[in-house]
Amino acid sequence: MHPATIELMRQHVRTIYRAATGAELNENDDIAEERGPAQLDEEVERHFAELDALVRSNPSVGERVPPFSFTPLVDVIDAGSELIVEIVAPGVDPADVQIEARVHELTISGVRRGELSNGRVYVHAEIPRGPFRRTIRLPCAVEPHPDLDARRGELVLRLRKT
After folding, report:
1. What is the pLDDT of residues 19-46, one digit of tens each?
2. How many CB atoms are closer than 10 A to CB 110?
3. DSSP characters for the chain?
């Protein structure tokens, strides 16, 4: 898992703790030294999913914590010699997006950042932030290196057909 994604997850945890208790979380980084990076990443992902489920089951806390992740909407358009993929992802920096195109499949992943910590106390929160991943089955074979263009909250990929 990308280090920036792990840090974003930590920010979410701090925000949840603040929403639930009104206090700041006292973090202990000694735990990270006891495990290897891959083991720690796997554990963080598992606990993060459990925490998300717990927060969503408690309406008084869930209402004050932004959703942890989102699923960007995607359109795939056949434009003759290429496929055009439009991804609605406002607030996503193209530098935070990874694209993997295989013969008949496209995977788009990344992170939508946002200020979750830094003393903010949410009264009501609905704008999703955090990691995302979409895998789309393509109707035809494509070359593995798409062109990416970003414009006003939309990412546009151009995939040449093979």
Report:
1. 777 777 776 644 555 666 667 667 776 7
2. 24
3. --HHHHHHHHHHHHHHHHHHHSS-----THHHHHS-HHHHHHHHHHHHHHHHHHHHH-HHHHTTS--S----EEEEEE-SSEEEEEEE-TT--GGGEEEEEETTEEEEEEEE-----TT---SS-----EEEEEEEE-SS-B-S--EEEEETTEEEEEEEB-
Domain ranges of the chain: 3-62, 73-160
pLDDT of residue 23: 79
Class of domain 73-160: mainly beta
